[in-house]
Write a structure and sequence with these properties.
226 residues; Arc Repressor Mutant, subunit A; 7-stranded mixed β-sheet; two-stranded antiparallel sheet; 8 helices; 50% helix; elongated
């Protein structure tokens, strides 16, 4: 190796704190212990990371232009739902099934305790302590039948972040997440309409409800979806 390359390499090692230099004649070098070198590199990396975080925090925050993002696994869908609930500032509207309640239920309870306006339609037998909850077990059973085993779930945070998911017994789990204001409004209104429908059914006599089911308009709407 040419001497120039050796000195060039030693100079780089000096800047990394890996060698000490004695500017004698001839110049002498000695290695710094690996432990000290790693400590130096770790401290430098953490300082650079801290600087980057501070400067990134100062960048202007542009709102997403209503893009729609696709998710294609249950884990990804649940994690995205968790982030929406945890990051919500003033409200959460959700339609949740028993299968996801272990993951999302405690977070919805905590969101209500934080003072958020939380409304949860529960498609199953699970219960929550603090949010406004609505028993949608019967609606869930009929929806599952109409949708060939699929479960439609929704989480809307602050009226401007929405996740709509389809979990399937025999079909792939998939979802979309969006900040599109029209989609967010539609998702909230879907939950409100489902809850309102359940409350109206509860207020009807069984005979009146059965009579409603037999009308042609209701039969056309509730046609089984393959």
């Amino acid at each position: 190796m040419p001497p120039s390359k050796i000195y060039e390499t030693l100079a780089r090692l000096e800047t990394k704190g890996a060698v000490l230099v004695n500017h004698s004649e001839p110049v002498r070098y000695t290695a710094v212990s690996p432990k000290d070198v790693l400590t130096f590199l770790k401290d430098k990396f953490e300082a650079d990371l801290s600087t980057a975080q501070e400067e990134l925090a100062d960048l202007p925050k542009n709102k997403e232009p209503g893009l729609v993002w696709s998710l294609h696994s249950r884990d990804a869908i649940v994690q995205a739902s968790i982030r929406l609930i945890n990051e919500a500032k003033h409200s959460v509207f959700a339609g949740v099934w028993d299968e996801e309640m272990d993951d999302l239920g405690p977070l919805l309870d905590k969101a209500a305790v934080r003072g958020l306006d939380v409304h949860v339609a529960i498609y199953g037998t699970s219960t929550l302590t603090h949010p406004h909850t609505y028993d949608m077990n019967e609606c869930g059973a009929s929806a599952r039948l109409r949708l060939s085993g699929r479960r439609l779930a929704v989480v809307v945070a602050d009226d401007d972040h929405t996740l709509v998911a389809s979990f399937g017994d025999r079909t792939p789990d998939e979802a979309v997440r969006t900040t599109n204001p029209v989609m967010c409004l539609l998702a909230v209104e879907y939950i409100k309409a489902d809850i309102s429908g359940r409350l109206m059914i509860n207020a009807m006599t069984p005979q009146a409800f059965q009579g409603l089911l037999k009308t042609q308009d209701m039969q056309d709407m509730l046609v089984h979806v393959e």
